[in-house]
Amino acid sequence: MKLGVVDGETLLLSIQGPLKGACEHAWSRLFDNRLKNSKNILLNFINLTHMDSEGANLLTIYTSRLAQRRIGLAACHLSDPFRDIFRLTGLDQAIALFDDENEALSMRPFHSGIRTATADFHAYKGPLVSGWARNVEHISIGDVTAEAMNVNVNGRKVTSPVRGFGRLWDKKYRFQITGKDMDPKEIVSVWQAEFPQFWPKGNKVFTSGGALLAPGATALLNLSVGGMLVLASGIMVIYADENSFCFSSVQGHMLCGWITFSSFREDDNTIIQVHPLFRPADPIMEMGFRLGAARQEDQFWHQTLRNLAARLGVEGRIEQKNCLVDRRLQWSEFGNIWYCGAIRSSLYLPLYWLVRLFSSRKH
After folding, report:
1. Does 184 reside within a domain?
2. Which residues contact 320 (CB under 8 A, 6 or more apart)?
3. What are phi and psi of 46, to 5 degrees?
4. Is residue 138 part of a domain?
5. What is the reported pLDDT for 257?
6. Banded pLDDT at 331 (limits 50, 70, 90)
7. How far apart are CA 144 and CA 327, in angstroms?
C-alpha cells in the first residue's frame, strides 16, 4: 500500500498487489496511525492484482470502522472484473465507486449513497478474477434429495455483512494441530470434498445437483434447532482456491455474511480456521443471538473442527477469537424479517413432516 495526501481533508491510499488476509496487520497500523484522523479516504485500485475472501473481509471491517467515525470512503480505478466482485459481495453498497481520482474528488464528502452511471455493472459477462464466482441476481437450487426441506432458497439473493440488521461480528475459530505436520492444501482439499460430513449431527447440507463446492455452487441447508424443528436456508460459494473456500448466506439465513474456511502455516504450526464475518439478518435473529444463539453457533463450529480433525487423524486445541466490529443496528435493514428462515420454515414444517410420513409409508 502507498499513502498520498490530496489535500488537508482527503487521504489517497493506493492498493498495490494482492489484497488478502496477510494485509491485516498493515491495515491495522494504517488505521491506528493515519486513516482515523482523515475526513475522506480514497482507495486507488489501479494496481490491485488479486483479492480473496479475506481481503473482502478487511474492506468490510474497515469500511464499518470508518463509517462509525463519520469518515467518508470511496474507490476509483476498479476494473470490471473487480467491480463484479464488489457487486457480488455488496461492497458497492458500502463504498462509493468512481472511474478516477478527479471524478471522486469532485463528489466529496464521500458517502455510500453516491453512485455514478459507470458503477452499474449488472450485465458484466467478461473474464472473472481467479477464484471468484460471477455476480448473480438470484440463486437457484437444482435437484436435491426428497428428504430435504427445500423452501425459502430458490429465487433469493446473496447477502453480505453490509446488509444485515444486527451488530457486526468478526469471529475466528482455530484448530492448531499438534504432534503432526500436514499440508494445508491437503486439508482444504479434504474439507471441501467432504464438507457435509463434518457438520454436527442433525445438520445437513444438500448441494444443488450434487455439485462440488466450487465458485458459483449453491447448497440447501437444513439446520437442527431442537427437537423436530428444522430451519431451511441456503448458501452460495463465492470464492475458492487451493488454500480456502468461502460461503455467502442468502436471504432468509440467520446471518447476513460470509464464512471462510481455510488452512495455513503460522509460526511453524498448521492452523485450520473457520472465519465468519456477519450481522444477524433481522431483529428476531439479533435477539436470538443475544439470548443464546451465539453460544450455539460457537459450539457448532467447535464440533465441526473436531469432526474434521478426527477425519484427518490429528489432535490439537481449539481457540476462539471474537471481535465486535460495530455495535450499531442497521434499522434500514429491518425489512429482512420478511425472508426470515425461522418463521418461514416453522410455517412450512407441518407440511414437510406430512410429506415425509406418507413417503415413508409408500416404501
Report:
1. yes
2. 171, 172, 173, 174, 298, 302
3. -65, -30
4. no
5. 97
6. very high
7. 38
Question: Could you tell me the residue range of the domain that residue 357 belongs to?
Answer: 161-362
- Highest average pLDDT, of 40-54, 106-120, 226-240, comes from 40-54
Is the confidence at residue 175, as pLDDT, over 70? yes
Whether residue 153 is contained in a domain is answered as no
pLDDT digit string, tens, across residues 230-258: 889 999 999 999 999 999 999 999 999 99
- Contacts of residue 240, defined as CB under 8 A and 6 or more positions apart, other chains included, come to 131, 192, 213, 214, 215, 246
DSSP state of 135: P
| CATH classification at residue 199 | 3.30.530.20
Q: How many Å apart are CA 102 and CA 112, to the nearest integer?
A: 18
306 in the same domain as 165:
yes
Whether the Cβ atoms of residue 158 and residue 139 lie closer than 8 Å to each other: yes
Residue type, 323: C
Count of residues in the chain = 363
Q: What digits encode the pLDDT tens for the residues 116-172?
A: 444 444 568 889 999 999 999 899 888 888 788 888 899 999 999 999 999 999 999
If asked whether residues 104 and 176 sit together in one domain, one would say no
Provide the angle, in degrees to the nearest 10, between the axes of the packed helices 53-68 and 80-89: 70
Is residue 175 domain-shared with residue 108, that is, in the same domain?
Answer: no
Does some domain include residue 194? yes
| 355 and 245 co-located in one domain | yes
Residue whose C-alpha is closest to residue 36's, from 8, 68, 2:
68
Does the pTM of the predicted model rise above 0.90?
A: yes
Residue type, 89: T
Nearest to 97 by CA among 85, 109, 108, 83: 83
Residues 108 and 231 in one domain: no
Report the CATH number at residue 45. 3.30.750.24
> Is 11 within 8 Å of 1 (Cβ atoms)?
no
pLDDT-based confidence at residue 350 (cuts at 50, 70, 90): confident
Q: Is there a contact between 87 and 137 (Cβ–Cβ < 8 Å)?
A: no
Using CB atoms within 10 A of its CB, is residue 29 exposed (0-12), middle (13-18) or buried (19+)? Answer: exposed
3-state secondary structure of 65: helix
